[in-house]
Write a structure and sequence with these properties.
Blueprint: E1 2-6, H1 11-22, E2 26-31, H2 35-38, E3 48-50, E4 68-71, H3 85-106, E5 110-116, E6 124-127, E7 131-133, H4 140-144, E8 160-162, H5 175-194, E9 197-203, E10 205-207, H6 220-229, E11 235-236, E12 243-248, H7 249-263, E13 270-276, E14 281-283, H8 284-295, E15 301-302, H9 319-325, H10 333-340
Parallel strand pairs: 1-2, 1-4, 2-3, 4-5, 5-9, 9-13, 10-12, 11-15
Antiparallel strand pairs: 6-7, 6-8, 12-14
């Protein structure tokens, strides 16, 4: 199979490239090598076409004879400032729209899109007495008082988190999240209008070798690790009880390979999204503790601080990916996070 891989020099893209190449696929590698993803010293990697997906017409010939596109190229992170909005809109939304347009022009009708669990906003919750409910955004006043949980609108009691399925309501709460929802909508529209087929993979908290270090766009596991490397305790927001799913980059890459194989067999005008997760929910504080223990560094500090727009709990259901893609994570956080404590990082 001939696969175009955008974002091929990135954290996840490199591992997808390795797995596709190992099984004998021909990979057309493209990457803009933007500093936010690769560090300030970004330089062209061997065999990578340094191109910008926002100007896809300039490199459309690279799509000749391509069977499928695996689209990883994006600005990542939560969106650290309002001023980041143009970057997310340009790289993620304009870039995806431009890519889809030129794919149609060149007759390429299969796409695997890197999406994210951030499209869900707050996860799924239920009150023991009043059942499932959709929580409102947590108020600054509540957060400042140390009340971090979501409450039942009827009785006011804490609500328990539940697994989020793919058909959950989309509720983006950051610049990055809004751009990921838009990417999904562009892709769905393209599939319908072009008679094409697409799969979106909603990554949960991806970690592993090659993560970028010391940038505001790094994942929380890399930020904790960076603190430990400087002899500082990891700073854990809120009370550390936020539930997340941490999935190893090797598993994420394998999910992409499975999706690349599956998308070609889907009917025309089709779109499906799948959670890509470990299936093992972990509190944020536990991630910091595992890294501290594995590195011999200082214990984490729970700060009680918060970031407006952060969600309390979001944990995915792995069932659809297992049943329809044959994907099941092989590396649990309890095994993978300690190994990550000493894995090589980027930048």
């Amino acid at each position: 199979m001939k696969v175009m891989l955008t974002g091929s020099a990135g954290f996840i893209g490199c591992e997808i490239d390795e797995q596709l190449t190992a099984r004998g696929d021909e990979v057309v590698r493209v990457d803009a090598l933007i500093p936010e993803a690769h560090g300030p010293q970004a330089r062209p990697e061997q065999h990578v076409h340094r191109v910008d997906v926002r100007d896809a017409t300039q490199w459309a010939e690279l799509l000749d004879d391509v069977d499928a596109v695996c689209h990883q190229a994006a600005m990542v992170g939560a969106g650290v400032a309002v001023g980041d909005l143009p970057l997310y809109a340009a790289h993620n939304n304009l870039g995806t729209a431009a890519l889809l347009g030129v794919m149609h022009d060149r007759g390429v009708d299969a796409l695997v899109l890197a999406s994210s669990m951030v499209v869900y906003g707050e996860g799924r919750y239920a009150c023991a007495e009043h059942g499932e409910q959709r929580p409102q955004a947590r108020t600054r006043e509540a957060l400042e008082s140390g009340d971090f949980e979501n409450h039942c609108a009827v009785c006011g009691e804490f609500m328990a988190w539940q697994l989020v399925p793919e058909d959950a309501r989309l509720d983006p709460r950051s610049s990055y999240a809004a751009s990921k929802v838009a990417q999904e909508h562009y892709t769905l529209t393209w599939a319908r209008q072009a008679g094409a087929r697409a799969i979106g993979l909603r990554y949960h908290n991806v970690y592993g070798p090659g993560m970028p270090r010391d940038t505001p766009y790094s994942g929380v596991a890399a930020i904790f690790r960076s603190s430990l490397e400087h002899g500082r305790p990891p700073q854990v927001f809120e009370d550390g009880g936020q539930m997340r799913d941490f999935v190893h980059v090797d598993d994420v890459a394998r999910a992409n390979v499975l999706a690349i194989d599956a998308v070609a067999d889907r009917p025309a005008e089709s779109w499906a999204a799948y959670n890509v997760c470990s299936g093992t929910p972990v509190p944020i504080l536990r991630i910091a503790e595992l890294l501290s223990e594995a590195s011999g560094g200082p214990a984490p500090e729970v700060t009680g601080g918060f970031r407006p727009g952060d969600v309390r709990h979001v944990v995915a259901s792995p069932e659809a990916a297992a049943e329809e893609l044959g994907f099941k994570a092989e590396i649990s956080p309890e095994d993978g996070i300690p190994r990550f404590a000493t894995a090589p990082l980027r930048g």
